[in-house]
Design goal:
- By secondary structure, this protein is of the alpha+beta class.
- The chain has 2 helices and 9 strands.
- The strands form 2 sheets. It has a 5-stranded antiparallel beta sheet, with helices on one face.
- A hairpin with a 7-residue loop joins strand 5 and strand 6.
Amino acid sequence: MIMDKRGFTLSVSRQNMAKNKNINNKAEQINLLTGFTLIELIVALGVFSVAIFMSTSTFLNLQNAERKVQNEVNLQDNLRFGLEMMAKEIRTGRDYHCGFSAGVGPLDCPAGDSSLTFQTTQLQSVIYRQIDSRIQKSTDGGASFQPLTSGDVLIEDLAFIVSGAASGDSLQPRILISIKASVQTKGTKKELSLQTLVSQRKLAP
């Protein structure tokens, strides 16, 4: 140990420097342990909330767009299926007339009707009609009906226009089928109209 005045002064200075260094180190450790300030937390939460809101909105928009496309595809598939099924049986049938009565003979229907009755090659009395906003079919003369279209698809109009059905007019029987339908998606209405003309396969005498 240096006992002179100068050495004592140097020793005290070195001790003070060591103490100050320890104090600074402790202060730095305290600052590291304090974490985020309140303002930093508020800003971070705000940014996070905005990001979540934008992501949720994008997801919901994509989900609604996908549901809309699926409903439109369902609408097209229902109408095409109904038209193809009716056209296939009508083409090979006979004794066409409008209405539900299976006992009425062939009769033209120039004004159109929402139902059509005819005989198949197996002598079944088939009826197609619009009821409860759906296309329905009967194979027992109207005793029972089965739906051809989905309940999600709203059939707004179904019309059968028959010409050339009456015997002795030398005209080929033809049936014009017209369908108008729609589907609802989140308050948006999508409409679709289809028509097809069916001629009897059997040639008129």
